[in-house]
Amino acid sequence: MPNAGFNEPEALAVIAKGQDKDEHIFQLYVRPKDSKAEQWEGARSGLEAAADVFNADVTGDINSLTSILSPIVSSASSVYTDIPLKASPTTVFSRFFSSPTSKSEGFAQILKSSEVQPLKPLINEIRAFKSDAELSNMRKAGQASGRAFTDAMRQEWTREKDLGNYLEYEFKRRGCDGSAYVPVVAGGEHALSIHYVRNDDVLRNGSLVLVDAGGEYGNYITDITRTFPPSSKFSKSQADLYNAILGVQRTCVSLCRASANMTLDKLHEIAERALKVGLADLGFDMSGNAMEVLFPHHLSHYIGLDVHDTPGYSRKEILKPGHCVTVEPGIYVPNSDRWPKHFRGMGIRIEDSIAVQEDSPYVFTTEAVKEVCLNELSMLAR
């Protein structure tokens, strides 16, 4: 329950209107203290801490939820929630092995006479703009993660899993709580799969490795991607493609400021046009659906408590101070006769995490080197 700052399972937060127009009552229902259960599972905060530490106005035992929620819900004119009222298996596999769905006797039954509204749009408007304290957490995550990346580039790597394990260790050693998400450590043509997470192959000399990883600090994430040679220097063709992408990434990062009057969709269009020119200069035939094949994902997404934060929040929103986003152009060249031979099989993405300010971007992840010359200087320190 990151929105309430409470990280234990089996907890429910309710925010209800008070008697006055601007009064709100924060209710937090949690597991009670239980010495026998805590001996096996670890300490619980309990009801007293819910009030004293987490500043709940009202607390209660989560095991009494039905009797607690019924009067709260019945007295409300509307209930805002995103808790699903019935199971919704999303794949053929999960549908096949799921029991037939029906409204439960629990939450759905309590809400059957209520006007239910989606909570997500309201939460998104709050979560989209980060406070100074939130920005501080994201900077700490970005700084620690960026330094871990740069240290990783100083070493030679022969296996994807070794590089991935090193980064996770370094994130924690430098102060992060852990990894923010399952990392991508994709050597060679594995980088053509956007969300390759097997991370179990060898890294071959002369190829590149694409690493998409980041640490989490105080529930806030950072998101970094770097692409570099795991045990040698960039070849000329690797450096040419890399620098074409880097130039676009730096331009788009510079536009992550309120004074530029940008949206994420506008930034994506700018990136597409610039990549198309850069790739044509490198000998790519950019006719037809070339951009769709070579750059199949969006340039940016919002970040914060989640790596894809505020789901459903529009990419058409004008960027304003407090918005936090990624900028991640990538080119993925299939091993096909359609593309110049010396670029085939390459996947290169460069990504930073950024906070929008009025006249300049605030890059959380600046410690992760990304210029080819700096990458190679890091490698010389091996």
Structure, described:
With 382 residues, the chain is of the alpha+beta class. Helices cover 34% and strands 16% of the residues. It contains twelve helices and 16 strands. It has helices spanning 35-41, 46-52, 65-74, 92-97, 107-111, 120-127, 132-153, 160-173, 236-254, 264-281, 290-294, 372-380; strands at residues 12-17, 24-30, 58-61, 79-80, 116-117, 178-179, 184-187, 209-213, 215-217, 220-221, 224-228, 324-327, 330-332, 347-349, 352-356, 361-363. Helix 9 (236-254) runs antiparallel to helix 10. The chain is elongated, with a radius of gyration of 24 Å. The two termini are 43 Å apart. 32% of the residues are buried. Mean pLDDT is 92; it is low at 100-104.
Characteristics:
elongated, 382 residues, three-stranded antiparallel sheet, 16 strands, 34% helix, alpha+beta, three-stranded mixed sheet
| SSE class | alpha+beta
Return the average pLDDT rounded to an integer.
Answer: 92
pLDDT < 50 runs, ≥5 residues: 100-104
- What Rg is obtained from the alpha carbons, in whole angstroms? 24 Å
What oligomeric state best describes the polypeptide chains here? Answer: single chain
Measured as a percent range, the helix fraction is: 25-40%
- The DSSP helix count reads 12
Which H/E pattern describes the elements? EEHHEHEHHEHHHEEEEEEHHHEEEEEH
The neighbouring-strand order within the major sheet is 1-2-3
Biggest sheet statistics: 3 strands, mixed
